[in-house]
Amino acid sequence: MPSNKQHKPNRPTPSSPSPSRPRKGVVIGALVAVAALLAGWVSQYAVGGNSTGSGGGNATVEGRSDDTAAGDPALLKLARRTADDPFARGDKDAPVVMIEYADFGCSFCGKFARDTEPKLVKKYVEKGLLRIEWRNFPVFGKSSERAALASYAAGQQGRFWQFYDAVYADKGNEKSAFTTGQLHELAEQAGVKDLGRFDRDRASEAARKQLKKDSTEAYGLGASATPAFLVNGQPIAGAQPDEVFIDAIERAAAKAEKSGKSGKSGHKG
Q1: CA 118 → CA 89, 107, 135, 145, distances in Å?
Q2: Are 47 and 213 in contact (CB under 8 A)?
Q3: How far apart (Å, rounded) are the C-alpha atoms in residues 114 and 112?
């Protein structure tokens, strides 16, 4: 397995939803779709190849047809496309949606955030082609859960992505305990103005409900490691090379344009 691209814990954390018992009616609604996605992720591990990440990444998309690039229709529905979603960036009607399932304590999630995502934002998000939607998927225990809840709280003040950048900018945070003091420092770096509200929001039932929803969605898809992605319903496992994401996005955009489902009418990539 390409262990340098994706973090996999030894076992699910006790407070995380069990992958064998996804909450009814939340995740896919079609078992065949779950099986298809799981098969896709497993096949990507198989072709990930060597641990250098220099050649295995291209194999995750090599040989895909335009039809494959469309993704599974059931999985496409996981894109929330909610206006003013604080945990998404990009036009809600963008032809391509990439859902990211990640953990703030995951070094490979950090690698993607620092090395790849800024390029995708500039190349696709800013041009209206791509929307990125975040899902908290804390697989490394209580510290990761604390960071996830704090990210929700930052989002309530419109500073989620700034919090995201602050956490991943420092590689030392990958092993952080995310204590209250550390979370306050990160919130201040992110420009969160009201730390009292920040603390109330991260301790709220709404925060835990959203965290459970995101994690249940990921476990229900068969994911057990981070980061994991869906690009218009097409799975990508791990912090793959830039070319893997670029290829998947452009194939999905071409398929959307061909099928007349490119989101905003008249959009040009």
Answers
A1: 12, 17, 18, 25
A2: no
A3: 6
